[in-house]
């Protein structure tokens, strides 16, 4: 979510009085330290999001992580993005944007080529880089990877607030989130329909690595499996690792596997060949980056996973 390290923020303000750094072409003028959530009724800007203040609607945005780049483009703000990280690869339109390093090592020479109004990132910047942006009056919005749907929801809302202001942003963020939620609800409906004619839910696993690296009960991905109506075979385990000694109890009806794992490899493996999923060829490849980035593609993927599993059962 947004930048939480208030201690570092206060320290940065103290350092600014004597710190001589490289300037960046900034957007809005310097304002007093904002108080969280203090948007004035009836005004779009300035808007406060956690510890940062956005004084005006950003017209030139730099995104330093693939996750925030996807969010910006999918929410309709792509035309305002002037720079992206070296690792951004989606959507194709990012190929036309300037490359600006990464959140861990911003390319300030590239960023300084034109005025910047806002920097967004899915990971916190190191303090020295954060100070350079603060000196240039460029707000940095950090939307850390959510550990729950509520946190993911807040990330989308915070981005809309930063881009459109306190009133329009609130409405736009909620409208966009509702569209994503509709896909999840559609997927969940398939699971409920299945249970109307079956006594137990389908058993499923989400493989990140062969043979035992799967979404466990302490992961968001594991929770999402259960939201779709599946029983996660690794629900009682942790840290993306199913215990090798419990392999005899592993009996998934459907297997979702990362794209670098070939379905045939799963079906023919010594671990999975005996289980129902392999026997019935119920193995589906999934792009794991959508879960890491938590982009709108994640919700579409969840719907496709439900359609694959439950449509096959109906057939």
Describe this structure in words.
It is a single chain. This protein has 315 residues and is α/β, with parallel strands linked by helices. The chain has 2 domains: 161 residues, Nitrogenase molybdenum iron protein domain (Rossmann fold, 3-Layer(aba) Sandwich); 124 residues, Rossmann fold, CATH 3.40.50.1980. Helix content is 38%, strand content 13%. It is built from 11 helices and 12 strands. Strands 5-4-3-6-7 form a 5-stranded parallel beta sheet. The chain is elongated and about 60 Å long. The N terminus is likely disordered.
Query: Which fold does the CATH topology of the largest domain refer to?
Result: Rossmann fold
Mean pLDDT: 89
Within the largest sheet, what's the order of strands?
A: 5-4-3-6-7
The succession of helices and strands, N to C, reads: HEEEHEEHEHEHHEEHEEHHEHH
The best one-word shape is elongated
Number of helices: 11
Structural class: alpha/beta
* Uncertain regions spanning at least 5 consecutive residues: 1-23, 27-42
Rg, alpha carbons: 22 Å
How far is the N terminus from the C terminus?
A: 42 Å
Annotated CATH architecture of the largest domain: 3-Layer(aba) Sandwich
User: How many domain modules?
Assistant: 2
How many strands, what sense, and barrel or not for the largest sheet? 5 strands, parallel
**Proportion of helical residues:** 25-40%
Q: Approximately how much beta-strand content do the residues carry?
A: 5-15%
Top-tier CATH class of the largest domain: Alpha Beta
């Amino acid at each position: 979510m947004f930048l939480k390290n208030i201690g570092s923020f206060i320290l940065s303000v103290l350092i600014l009085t004597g710190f001589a750094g490289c300037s960046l072409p900034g957007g809005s003028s310097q304002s007093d330290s904002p108080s969280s959530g203090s948007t004035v009724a009836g005004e779009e800007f300035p808007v406060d999001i956690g510890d940062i203040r956005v004084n005006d609607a950003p017209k030139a945005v730099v995104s330093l992580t693939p996750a925030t780049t996807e969010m910006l483009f999918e929410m309709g703000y792509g035309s305002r993005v002037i720079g992206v990280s070296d690792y951004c690869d989606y959507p194709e339109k990012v190929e036309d944007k300037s490359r600006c390093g990464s959140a861990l090592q911003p390319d300030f020479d590239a960023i300084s080529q034109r005025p910047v109004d806002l920097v967004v990132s899915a990971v916190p910047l190191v303090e020295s880089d954060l100070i350079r942006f603060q000196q240039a009056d460029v707000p940095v919005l950090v939307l850390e990877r959510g550990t729950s749907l509520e946190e993911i929801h807040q990330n989308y809302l915070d981005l809309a607030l930063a881009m459109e202001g306190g009133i329009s942003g609130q409405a736009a963020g909620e409208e966009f989130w509702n569209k994503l939620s509709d896909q999840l609800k559609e997927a969940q409906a398939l699971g409920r329909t299945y249970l109307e004619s079956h006594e137990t839910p389908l058993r499923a696993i989400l493989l990140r690595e062969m043979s035992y690296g799967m979404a466990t009960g302490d992961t968001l991905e594991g929770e999402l499996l259960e939201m779709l109506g599946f029983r996660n075979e690794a629900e009682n385990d942790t840290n993306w690792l199913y215990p090798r000694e419990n392999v005899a109890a592993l009996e998934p009806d459907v297997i979702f596997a990362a794209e670098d794992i070939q379905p045939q490899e799963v079906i023919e493996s010594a671990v999975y060949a005996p289980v129902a999923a392999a026997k019935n060829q119920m193995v589906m490849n999934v792009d794991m980056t959508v879960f890491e980035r938590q982009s709108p593609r994640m919700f579409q993927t969840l719907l496709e996973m439900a359609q694959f599993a439950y449509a096959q059962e109906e057939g």
